[in-house]
Recover the amino acids of this structure.
């Protein structure tokens, strides 16, 4: 079903990364500003992220010998140094997810650059090196994001949905490997319910949500795709879901032929295949022309 | 279970088929984003990337699947998308599929004056003629937004059928003083949007079903149509239902339908032509729905209530 399947390492059938966005209380501070300290139940739900959920996930990945990717806003990195140290000690990738989960679709280019750099500085301070990967907070990759990522030397982005396997974003200033996922693989749509965020979906049983993830995995495995979970520790590592997660990990290991890797390695592999000429990605040019497309005005010439 | 016939006037389908089925697709592409958020569409790169998946990744996949099964389907394509994605249009045509009209840029007829609706319909028509070399015979209103003016406009441009309405389980006619048009109905349950679509940009935040759950709905619709002689029309979007896990479930459903047997797989144009044929020969009598439904809204019965407001 995939037109230009990518040769995965060692003949693997598909690539898998359980990537986690550890948003922490950034979501409450961004949404409520001066009122944030008054929303203690929501804050408690989000503090579960760094204090309870991430250590649990790290222990699970260690049991299965998996290295994965954690997207963490700069503010959370500064506020949870012990959690960050633990993530790094376990050999996982630390990647960029904004500074305070600010929404780039609402920022000027200047503001977006400011927050991007501020979070890079936080990552450098915590890990001693620059991040190579980015996921836009709320997937809100903006008209300016591509150029900023090239300027700051990012190698890959993981915010878009345009294919089933890696593809290449191209800009006059350079390229970025896109590692696409999809909202079906985001835990928010299956399990999140919050009055404070005005997000009132019914909460699914773990089996229902994982039925979706498993169907996505089966198809990836059959057709050579890329499976990237976009999960939040405070959502997906609550006890009942953590058990379902472990069952899924076991299913994947038992199936065999799965390349588990952090996104930075998957991006590097895509670049290596391109350089060796063993695979050609689809290419997607950015940015789009600015302003409403001319065809929207009645009477415009064809 | 007692086999009580549920349909009042089942259609005599060709070769004694039990039912007719068409997987119709609306290839909306980025038209949805441009029409919804004209001034900031270009900054919503993630939403755009999801929509571009339709013409670039999903359509070639769908064409390949239907070629494997030897089935011809109907793709409704906004004129703007036909202009922007000639390769997708060519692939659809090379597969022998029908291309139907779906507005110019997914404009919503409910929000348009009669004159504007006519303008965009004509512009969509011109774009499809240019891209395909022939006039489309079928129409599906963007967002199912068939307006009080749509029937007359479709008659003016010589369309043979519409596939936007929901008043029956089998084809029927929609009529006014100027003549009639074949209506090929399908319910919202057959649309993939309520099962899978989740988008911050469009404010659509449905819970996403697994393919197995959604196909439970599509399959139960099929089973009952097969049992009772109805019409099964999927209203799917390549960027949604053409994603790999859902495409795999689609392949399973096609195999299920073929194994069950007695299914007439056809394009909507062929189904509309069959309806005309059996109507003309007297083998079948369709129900007729007169449009407009009411002389005006609000209807007079509401006047007391409205006066009180
Ligand atoms: Zn986030
Ligand atoms: Zn549409």
């Amino acid at each position: 079903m995939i037109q230009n399947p990518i040769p995965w390492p060692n003949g693997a059938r598909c690539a898998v990364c359980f990537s986690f966005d550890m948003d922490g209380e950034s979501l409450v501070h961004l949404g409520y500003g001066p009122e944030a300290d008054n929303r203690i139940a929501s804050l408690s739900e989000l503090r579960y992220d760094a204090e309870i959920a991430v250590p649990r996930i790290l222990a699970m990945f260690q049991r299965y010998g998996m290295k994965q990717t954690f997207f963490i806003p700069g503010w959370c990195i500064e506020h949870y140094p012990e959690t960050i140290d633990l993530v790094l000690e376990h050999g996982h990738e630390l990647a960029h997810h904004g500074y305070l989960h600010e929404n780039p679709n609402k920022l000027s280019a200047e503001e977006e650059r400011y927050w991007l750099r501020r979070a890079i500085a936080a990552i450098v301070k915590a890990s001693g090196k620059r991040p190579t990967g980015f996921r836009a907070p709320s997937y809100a990759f903006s008209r300016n994001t591509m150029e900023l990522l090239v300027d700051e030397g990012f190698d890959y982005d993981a915010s878009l949905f345009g294919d089933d396997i890696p593809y290449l974003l191209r800009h006059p200033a350079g390229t970025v490997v896109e590692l696409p996922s999809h909202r079906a693989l985001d835990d928010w749509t299956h399990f999140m319910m919050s009055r404070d965020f005005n997000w009132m979906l019914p909460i699914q049983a773990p089996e229902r949500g994982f039925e979706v993830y498993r169907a996505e995995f089966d198809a990836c495995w059959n057709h050579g795709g890329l499976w990237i979970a976009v999960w939040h520790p405070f959502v997906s590592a609550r006890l009942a879901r953590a058990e379902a997660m472990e069952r899924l990990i076991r299913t994947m290991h038992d199936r065999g032929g799965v390349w588990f890797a952090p996104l930075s390695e998957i991006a590097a592999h895509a670049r290596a295949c391109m350089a060796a000429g063993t695979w050609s990605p689809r290419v997607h040019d950015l940015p789009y022309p600015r302003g409403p497309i001319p065809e929207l005005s009645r009477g415009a010439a064809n | 279970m007692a086999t009580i016939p549920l349909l009042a006037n089942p259609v005599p389908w060709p070769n004694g088929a039990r039912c007719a089925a068409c997987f119709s697709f609306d290839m909306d592409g980025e038209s949805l984003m441009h029409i919804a958020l004209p001034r900031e569409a270009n900054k919503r790169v993630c939403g755009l990337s999801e929509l571009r998946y339709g013409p670039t990744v999903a359509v070639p996949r769908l064409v390949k699947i239907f070629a494997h099964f030897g089935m011809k389907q109907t793709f409704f394509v906004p004129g703007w998308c036909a202009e922007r994605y000639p390769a997708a249009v060519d692939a659809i045509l090379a597969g022998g599929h029908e291309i139907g009209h779906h507005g110019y840029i997914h404009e919503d007829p409910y929000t348009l004056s009669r004159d504007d609706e006519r303008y965009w319909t004509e512009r969509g028509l011109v774009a499809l003629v240019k891209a395909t070399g022939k006039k489309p015979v079928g129409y599906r209103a963007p967002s199912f937004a068939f307006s009080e003016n749509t029937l007359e406009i479709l008659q003016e441009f010589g369309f043979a059928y519409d596939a936007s309405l929901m008043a029956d389980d089998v084809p029927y006619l929609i009529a006014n003083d100027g003549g009639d048009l074949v209506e090929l109905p399908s319910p919202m349950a057959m649309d993939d949007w309520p099962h899978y679509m989740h988008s911050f940009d469009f404010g659509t935040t449905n819970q996403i079903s697994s393919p197995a759950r959604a196909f439970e709905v599509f399959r139960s619709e099929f089973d009952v149509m097969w049992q009772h002689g109805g019409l099964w029309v999927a209203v799917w979007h390549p960027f949604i239902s053409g994603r790999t896990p859902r495409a795999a479930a689609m392949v399973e459903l096609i195999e299920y339908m073929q194994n069950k047997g007695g299914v007439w797989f056809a394009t909507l144009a062929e189904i509309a032509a069959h309806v005309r044929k059996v109507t003309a020969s007297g083998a079948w009598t369709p129900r007729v729905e007169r449009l407009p439904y009411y002389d005006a809204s609000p209807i007079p019965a509401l006047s007391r209530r409205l006066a009180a407001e």
